[in-house]
Amino acid sequence: MSEDDARIFRKAMNGVRPLPACKAAPAPPKPRAQTRFPRAGRGSLLREGQPLPLDLATLDGDDHVAFRRAGVREDVLRKLRRGQFAVEGEIDLHGLRRHATHAALREFIGMAIARRLRCVRVIHGKGLRSGPGGPVLKHAVNDWLTRIENVAAFASARPVDGGTGAVYVLLTLPPAPPRPHRD
Hints:
By secondary structure, the chain is an alpha+beta fold. It has helices spanning 3-12, 39-45, 74-81, 98-114, 136-147, and strands at residues 66-68, 89-92, 119-123, 151-156, 166-171. The chain is built from 5 helices and 5 strands, in the order ααβαβαβαββ. Strands 1-4-5-3-2 form a 5-stranded mixed β-sheet, sandwiched between helices. The model is unreliable at 34-43 and 54-61 (pLDDT under 50).
């Protein structure tokens, strides 16, 4: 800045006093989170029953798991195991405690049904750090999935999709609501 510019600036600022210091305005409160699927609506979509025993024939030595509800054909389960259904949604449950995992899984499956997703992936981890009791979340997730009546089948994912640390879940969807007639 030249000497003339500095002189002009000082003359322009003559008599100007700095504003008194003030506290910053408080941040506006965050809006309350809203779900697109109210709990009452999800509850009517997600039905839970008693746990069904996993068929021990569906477990193999590599810790792979598969389950199919009565009425689901074997070829459907085979396609699920091979990853031949498009995965339309996914949840990763790593790092959650057992109770939080159950709540997150119920919420996710309810959302998937409401959005009419047919196949989703649930990543529960392999339980490598679970200690001598084995993989806690893996067994819990498999148990919970057998209780959800909308779960038609599930199977361990292909290695590229998480292997025995994830399952593909095939969902049965309630009938679609009727569309309004346009005349």
